[in-house]
Design a protein that fits this description.
about 260 residues; alpha/beta; Stationary-phase Survival Protein Sure Homolog, Chain: A; 9-stranded mixed beta sheet; 7 helices; 11 strands; SurE-like_sf; nucleotide-binding
Length: about 260
């Protein structure tokens, strides 16, 4: 199995090193794992692609490349340049530093990379490590993902739903904010929504007098609806959420026929 890995935290991010370990174990051969990751951090860029400018790509080591672009750009570079003569069987994105559950998934470059792979017809999984009081002070904050990443992926590849339709399914995995020994299991979960948790901006004035806006986030441990991804994460479960790039609100189509 050939695997392409990427992330949105940048090629030197510790979570990418964790993902490389997981991918090598999954492939069973280090020479079957290729890395194409952003040269610099690209958190929060979603499914952005560098459509209006070129991106430089540099070979850092054998089968390891840094691209001056978004995570989705890195997937395109991997599929159509770096691995064009032997496309990967699987794309893995992560392991993200922080959760990409609930509304975070909409903004996530980690998820955006998996989405692009799915649009290109390649099975893909995004992986993220929820941070919290039980994980942030661990010697290895990714210990939960490091411990459970391989068995969860093996189970997903064996038992998951994989489609070849126009908007193929890809998966968003979030590891809970607890040590690996406290994980209670795996839960298939829908994407949640943290109410009153949206992003905002905070203005600042620089010494030069110029005005800048910092984008602000919100606490990540607020409850979401029962059974959703962030909800089961906070209960100690690994969440596995099937996703598609299709943005159609299918539940509203029938009612919308009234305008015809």
């Amino acid at each position: 199995m050939r695997i392409l890995i990427t992330n949105d935290d940048g090629i030197n991010a510790p979570g990418l090193a964790v993902l490389e370990e997981i991918a090598i174990a999954l492939a069973g051969d280090a020479t079957a794992v290729w890395t194409v990751a952003p040269a610099f951090e690209q958190s929060g860029v979603g499914h952005c692609i560098s459509y209006t400018r070129p991106m430089m790509i540099s070979e850092m080591a054998e089968r390891r490349y840094a691209a001056e672009g978004s995570p989705a750009d890195c997937v395109l570079a991997g599929l159509h340049d770096v691995m064009k003569d032997a496309r990967p069987d699987l794309v893995l994105s992560g392991v993200n530093r922080g959760n990409n559950a609930a509304e975070n998934a909409v903004y996530s470059g980690t998820v955006g990379a998996a989405m692009e792979a799915a649009l290109q017809g390649v099975p893909a999984v995004a992986l993220s490590q929820y941070y919290g009081p039980k994980t942030r002070d661990l010697p290895d904050p990714f210990e939960c993902a490091r411990t459970h990443g391989l068995p969860v992926l093996r189970r997903l590849l064996d038992k998951g739903v994989w489609t070849q339709d126009d908007y193929g399914i890809f998966y968003n995995i979030n590891f809970p904010p607890c040590p690996g020994s406290e994980v209670r299991g795996i839960r298939a979960a829908r994407q949640g929504f943290r109410r009153d948790m949206g992003f905002g901006v905070q203005p600042h004035t620089a010494p030069s007098g110029r005005r800048f806006l910092w984008v602000t986030g919100a606490p990540q441990h607020e409850p979401t609806s029962p059974g959703s991804d962030a909800d089961v994460n906070l209960q100690g479960y690994v969440s596995v959420t099937p996703m598609r790039a299709d943005l159609t609100a299918h539940d509203a189509l029938e009612a919308l026929k009234a305008i015809e």
